[in-house]
């Protein structure tokens, strides 16, 4: 699998987010305060990576 695929993420401020994040690459997540960056990075991506 070349990507971590996230479909329909809805934790905290995330509203039905779909994203494919490439593995073995440096990925930067940016946005305004409270936009869900930490929820995406720590909660959602961590959970997907454990599967």
Write up this protein.
With 51 residues, this protein is of the alpha+beta class. It has one domain. 25% of the residues lie in helices and 25% in strands. It contains 1 helix and 2 strands; from the N terminus they run E-E-H. It has one helix spanning 37-49, and strands at 3-9, 17-22. Strands 1-2 form a two-stranded antiparallel ribbon. The longest helix has 13 residues, at 37-49. The protein is globular. The model has no long low-confidence stretch (mean pLDDT 85).
Percent in helix: 25-40%
Tell me the major beta sheet.
Answer: 2 strands, antiparallel
Overall number of structural domains: 1
Question: DSSP helix count?
Answer: 1
- Rounded mean pLDDT is 85
How far apart the termini lie comes to 12 Å
Give the topology.
Blueprint lengths: L2 E7 L7 E6 L14 H13 L2
Antiparallel strand pairs: 1-2
